[in-house]
Amino acid sequence: MDQLAESVSAGLGGIICTTVLYPLEIVKNRLQVMTNAQGKRDADAPNPTVRSVAQHIWKMDGARGLMWGNTPSCIWGFVEKLIYFYSFALCRYVAERLTGGPMSTPVSLLVGYASEWTHLPFTMPLEVWTVRVQHTRPGTSIWRTLWETYAQGGVRVFYKSASAFLVLATKPAIKYTLYERVRQVTIARRNALRTAQGLPRIAGLGYFEAFLLGAIARSLAEVLIYPVRAGPPRAVPCAYHAPPFAPHTVSPSSHLLVGRAACRADLSALDNSIPVQKW
Q1: What pTM did the predictor assign?
Q2: pLDDT tens for residues 193-210?
Q3: What are the backbone dihedrals phi and psi of residue 256, each rounded to the nearest 5 degrees, phi first?
Q4: Distance between CA 165 and CA 182 in Å, rounded?
């Protein structure tokens, strides 16, 4: 019961984290798609920055534009963290019972990888839904977007890129293993020093230290798997929010490169006002 309560807390933490960082997620996605059909920015167009993209979205739709799609994203974050946290704790318990001690690095990677797959059958559709909503005009019904996505091919539409997660699922495993190994080494060294000084041993890191270490571990894991997450170029219609830094990118005949191909390869009709081109 305690484990379930902790898992729910992790899910609620996922909602808070998603909401706080969501404007940056929107801006990042816009930067990823601002390219032309050949995957190159117009040499004569100004180089877009985080600030310029954020200003453009604010000018177009205000705060609503920076938070559009947050609802399905929070649902996705809650389900992902809840299932992953519970599954990881269970898998870790089984692994430690089988090995008779703390998990080694290979076992830790394997447990993290297996735990990630336990939530993917539920969160892959939520991620596709979130990305679809992000590329609709603010005010469009998110439930209508979900239904239109389903109508394009049924349930299989949400799982077309499942094979990409054979690599993407390693991110949480890498993140946790880096975090845990550095944490263990840091605590061991501090306890050795405190023992020599006659001070009581410590059981863990401080809140800020744990937060900082977690952020560094997540960043390193993201850097390692980012080429796969960004994926190969996929031709899709111009998204509603694409800032007009390169004028040609907003014409119906032009296309954008959409990152996170694991989900966005399925987005064949981001804007009904623009003809759809199959690939």
Answers
A1: 0.69
A2: 888 888 888 888 888 888
A3: -120, 150
A4: 26
